[in-house]
């Protein structure tokens, strides 16, 4: 589907245009989903002690947390093409918030695992975020827009590592309750905020620059819903989609795995935490683990930004080449981190690894919008599902007797090898020409807008920005 009036710039302080409202609401909604999705991870020490969980059971909870998201992302991409991102996001937030709040009802491993699996539904929010910004922003900045909204959303994975232990401690202090009650109340609060955000998304956004899908179809500005029939199968038939599926599994899949394991990895594998009581160990490990996710505030944006710049200079081929560089460096950095046994050395190595894994994600989705514009939702859904498929596969390394540092080393080697898959992603000469033409038109529009703004009074410009 083609859309007009896409934004040619990202104006962060613009909250009035539909493009920037979608930008801000989509990253914020994804942030909250990510926060709730992995909110239990930094509290797993408490849950493990309460329910007497084994290493294998913790491994299954890691696998379960990302498994259903594979299916959810495939479905939500298909749904976006049909009903639009506004309805899709609203429904996902309202439904997905229920298991987040309800996990507090778990009283044994079986019920805990069921709720942990169900919570993974909200991970499909990523696909809607990428879909919404892809149809709102022009080719000259779509990579940066996609990377920034996804990166700031992924930031929730880092923030939750630091905030959930604080919320947990605060609930215990304020309510005077036990640790058993404290983690349950904390998760209920996270789910309730997601529910309220779902309502806000419905009223504060629209599907496309010119309006909602329903109204655009009724006015004839958008093809009827039946016209997208078969788009999912068409996307499935493109081998490049499955290459990106594997590539995204090697970057976002690794990030999900790290989010699920890092706090517990610090507690179990570094002597620094051995003599601390439970509350302090959970808080300190969560604080250090949050550094990994907090890099999303700029790292993923860099991946998309340089993807746009490489595309500007070398076309679609340049975007793919940049993806290879980031993914290759990610694998090397993960192998290096796996060999760190001293916390003072592990932290900077973790930050370096985080930089490359998140730039790889941004670089991936600077390529995705150019694979198949007519089936954008389906392509985004399949590639996004690859991230969770990668995390689910990686989870099996953490449920057996294999030491976790060895598991990280193996994953690093696999990622390094996956980087070479990017050389399989090819574009026709026609696609290169179309992308170049669209880019030049977008740049011209952006320059015209800038000239018009310079000719208007400053107060008027600020009033419409």
Automatic annotation (TrEMBL):
One of its GO terms (cellular component) is membrane. It comes from the Bacteria. Residues 22-430 form the Major facilitator superfamily (MFS) profile domain. It is a multi-pass membrane protein. Keywords: Membrane, Nitrate assimilation, Transmembrane, Transmembrane helix. InterPro entries: MFS, MFS_dom, MFS_trans_sf, NO3_transporter. GO terms for biological process: nitrate assimilation. It is found in: Membrane. GO terms for molecular function: nitrate transmembrane transporter activity. The keyword Transmembrane applies. The chain crosses the membrane at residues 21-40, 60-80, 87-106, 112-131, 152-175, 181-204, 241-267, 279-299, 320-337, 343-368, 375-398, 404-425. Gene3D superfamilies: MFS general substrate transporter like domains. The keyword Transmembrane helix applies. Belongs to the major facilitator superfamily. Nitrate/nitrite porter (TC 2.A.1.8) family. PANTHER family: HIGH-AFFINITY NITRATE TRANSPORTER 2.3. This is Putative sulfoacetate transporter SauU. It comes from Polystyrenella longa. The gene is sauU.
């Amino acid at each position: 589907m083609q859309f007009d009036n896409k934004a040619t710039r990202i104006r962060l302080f613009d909250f009035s245009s539909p493009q920037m409202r979608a930008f801000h609401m989509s990253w914020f909604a994804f942030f909250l989903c990510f926060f709730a999705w992995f909110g239990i991870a930094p509290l797993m020490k408490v849950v493990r002690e309460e329910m007497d969980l084994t290493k294998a059971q913790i491994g299954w909870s890691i696998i379960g947390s990302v498994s259903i998201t594979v299916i959810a992302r495939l479905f939500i991409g298909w749904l976006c093409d049909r009903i639009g991102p506004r309805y899709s996001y609203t429904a996902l937030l309202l439904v997905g918030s229920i298991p987040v709040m309800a996990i507090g009802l778990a009283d044994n491993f079986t019920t805990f695992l069921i709720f942990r699996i169900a919570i993974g539904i909200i991970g499909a929010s990523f696909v809607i975020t990428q879909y919404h910004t892809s149809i709102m922003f022009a080719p000259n900045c779509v990579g940066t827009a996609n990377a920034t909204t996804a990166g700031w959303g992924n930031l929730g994975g880092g923030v939750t590592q630091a905030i959930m232990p604080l919320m947990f401690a605060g609930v215990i202090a304020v309510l005077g309750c036990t640790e058993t009650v404290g983690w349950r109340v904390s998760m209920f609060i996270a789910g309730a905020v997601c529910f309220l955000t779902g309502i806000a998304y419905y009223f504060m956004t629209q599907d496309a620059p010119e309006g909602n899908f329903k109204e655009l179809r009724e006015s004839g500005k958008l093809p009827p819903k039946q016209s997208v029939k078969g788009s999912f199968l068409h996307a499935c038939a493109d081998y490049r989609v499955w290459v990106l599926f594997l590539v995204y599994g090697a970057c976002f899949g690794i990030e999900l795995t790290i989010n699920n394991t890092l706090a517990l990895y610090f507690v179990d594998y570094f002597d620094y935490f051995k003599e601390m009581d439970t509350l302090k160990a959970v808080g300190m490990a969560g604080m250090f683990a949050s550094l990994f996710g907090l890099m999303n505030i700029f790292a993923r944006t860099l991946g998309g930004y340089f993807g746009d710049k490489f595309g500007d200079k070398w076309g679609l081929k340049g975007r793919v080449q940049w993806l290879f560089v980031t993914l290759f460096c990610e694998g090397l950095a993960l192998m290096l981190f796996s060999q760190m046994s001293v916390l003072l050395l592990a932290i900077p190595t973790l930050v370096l690894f985080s930089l490359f894994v998140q730039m790889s994600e941004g670089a991936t989705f600077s390529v995705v919008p150019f694979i198949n514009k007519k089936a954008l939702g389906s392509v985004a859904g399949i590639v996004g599902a690859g991230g969770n498929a990668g995390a689910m596969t990686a989870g099996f390394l953490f449920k057996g007797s294999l030491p976790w540092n060895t598991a990280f080393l193996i994953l690093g080697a696999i990622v390094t090898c996956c980087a070479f898959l990017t050389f399989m992603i090819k574009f026709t000469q026609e696609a290169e020409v179309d992308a170049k033409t669209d880019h030049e038109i977008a740049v011209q529009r952006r320059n015209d807008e800038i000239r018009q703004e310079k000719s208007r009074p400053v107060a008027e410009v600020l009033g419409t920005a």
